[in-house]
Amino acid sequence: WITRPLATPSPELVAAVGGHPLVAQLLAQRGIDTPAKALPFLNADAYTPAPPSALIGVDAAADLLHDAIARQQNFLVWGDFDVDGETSTALLVTALRTLAGDARVHFHVPNRFEESHGIRVPKLKEKLAEFPADVLVTCDTGIAEAAGVGYARDCGLTVVITDHHDLSAEFHGLTPGVDRLWGLSPVEVGVESVRRADAIVNPKFLPEGDPLRRWRGVGVAYKLVQRLFDLAGRSGEEAEMLDLAALGIVADVAEQVNDARYLLQRGLERLRTTKRVGL
Question: 115 with 81: CB under 8 angstroms?
Answer without folding.
Answer: no
